[in-house]
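Dear colleagues,

As part of the handover before I leave the project, I'm documenting each prediction I ran so the next person doesn't have to rerun anything. This entry is a single chain, and its sequence is reproduced below.
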Amino acid sequence: KQEAWLTWGTKENDLSNIAYDDRAGEKSGQSYSYHSVTLKDLSPETTYYFKVTDGKSFFAKNGKDIFTFSTISNLKQSTHNKPAYGKYVVDNKPMGSAIVLIEHPAIYPLSTVTKPSGEWLIPFNYTVNKKTGALYILKPEDIVSISVLDETGKTTRVTARTLQLSPLKDPIKNGALANLTTPKETSSKPSSEGAISLI
């Protein structure tokens, strides 16, 4: 766990913008194992440079401490899919500040941070094809992976179809490795926990 934030800009030698962890803001002393940073008001079809720092040094990979990405062109948003939303619990209690990732082989990952109530919501208005940069519309039967990253260190992953995500019927339970794409045996006895169980 440590503090971390980004310095960024459109020139490699001028990273004057600062973006803090979505959960910590500008507060010091907020340390996390996983970090979520949102860059806003970016221009389309532009290359950006950034560094990751804890205030003392810069994170480096393969000897380089500066990273880059390029934004895509402006896209019309899709209105075909409802947003994915649900709830995340640890020991049956709502967990805030967890990072939720939705991944599909064809698109760039989507993410959000859970609210103190454990609730999360990820719109599907701008799902972008990794290869073409064009809008990719997820089909109801498409299979996606939902991962949750928090400070417990447990792996939490749920596999489901797009049509099952609006909303995700049961809360995602910390440490669950669940596949909701296959039919389960039904029981006349209702679940007492109301959470996704291990499969």
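DSSP finds no helices and 13 strands in the chain. Residues 185-199 have pLDDT under 50 and may be disordered.

All the best with the project,
I.
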